[in-house]
Design brief:
There is one protein chain. By secondary structure, the chain is mainly alpha-helical. It has two domains: 60 residues, no CATH class; 210 residues, Glutathione S-transferase Yfyf (Class Pi), Chain A, domain 2 (Up-down Bundle), CATH 1.20.1050. The protein starts with 9 loop residues before the first helix and ends with a helix. 15% of the residues are buried.
């Protein structure tokens, strides 16, 4: 004879549901506290709240499987803690397209094309500065090893005579030894900084190009004066052609400030993963230059919008 399962009492069902809600609340608090589960272990689905008794597989599963993995703040901010050369190039491409569509065939559009080419070269150069130059390092290591080996061989061939030497001779020997150690240290330091000086030379050469481009951008906005929109201002033979409207002139000046801003960001790529004080000083000079030129242009924009 088959016996049917007796129905659960209402009080027992309410107790089980109350205990289940408390456990779920504790799990949610633990998730907010920062507990995470391992990504290789898939989590079990949550039980059905309409069921009087939860799923035993979820009930007795490890706590790490029942807690959803929160999104890490470091993963969100990791892309905003360093410059991305691909994003800079993408931004510059959009700016080039905007300038070319708004002012086709203008000198500013050609400057943006040249700056885009320099940005692509700067991305490759920044990657080179971040990588170790193994041929130079191997050569420096062999040179230092040869120098130390020569010193060791020289020391092994020295024959010290017995007896106590006189004070003048002892002072002369100590002075000669100190001089040799100092010159040896200078030579080792020179060899250890060869890689940095080689990279610095290439970085400074590229930064000089960016400095020149910043001045070229400034030259393009030099004759874009808001006073040229004044009909009362007379024009002579040597005056530049006044073909822009107020809106076009404001947009042209705005594009100049954007090109200067991107120029400073390209310069900052060189010291993103290359620690060198001389290169950092050159980058700071370019940033100061572009900021000063941008302030001058924004003065014109303020006058234009007044």
């Amino acid at each position: 004879m088959r016996v049917r399962d007796a129905p659960s009492p209402p009080g027992l069902i309410r107790s089980i549901r109350f205990i289940r809600y408390i456990r779920i609340a504790l799990i949610v608090d633990a998730s907010n506290a920062g507990w995470t589960r391992r990504p290789e272990e898939p989590s079990q689905p949550l039980p059905d709240f309409r069921s009087p008794i939860p799923d035993s597989r979820w009930w007795y599963a490890p706590l790490s499987d029942r807690i959803p993995a929160p999104v890490s703040a470091s993963e969100i901010l990791s892309t905003y803690r360093q410059l991305d050369d691909a994003k800079i190039i993408e931004t510059l491409e959009r700016l080039r397209n905007r300038i070319r569509d708004r002012f086709p065939g203008s000198g500013l559009s050609r400057v943006s094309e040249e700056l885009l080419e320099v940005a692509r070269e700067s991305a490759s150069l920044a990657a080179y500065l971040a990588r170790p130059n193994w041929p130079v390092r191997v050569g420096v290591g062999l040179a230092i090893a040869a120098m130390l080996g020569a010193v060791f061989v020289a020391l092994t061939r020295i024959r010290l005579q017995g007896g106590v030497a006189e004070w003048p001779e002892l002072v002369q020997v100590i002075e000669s030894g100190v001089n040799d150690v100092v010159f040896l240290g200078i030579a080792v330091f020179f060899l250890l900084t060869v890689e940095t000086r080689v990279k610095r030379q290439r970085a400074l050469r590229a930064l000089h190009q960016l400095r020149s481009i910043a001045h070229v951008v400034d030259m393009h906005q030099l004759t874009k004066d808001p006073e040229q929109l004044d009909a009362e201002s007379p024009a002579n033979v040597a005056s530049p052609a006044r073909t822009m409207t107020r809106g076009e002139l404001g947009r042209y000046l705005d594009y100049c400030t954007e090109l200067l801003s991107v120029t400073s960001k390209i310069a900052a790529l060189y010291v993103e993963r290359f620690n060198d004080d001389v290169t950092l000083g050159a980058v700071n000079e370019i940033e100061s230059l572009t900021a000063g030129l941008s302030r001058k242009i924004w003065q014109k924009i303020s006058i234009l919008n007044a």
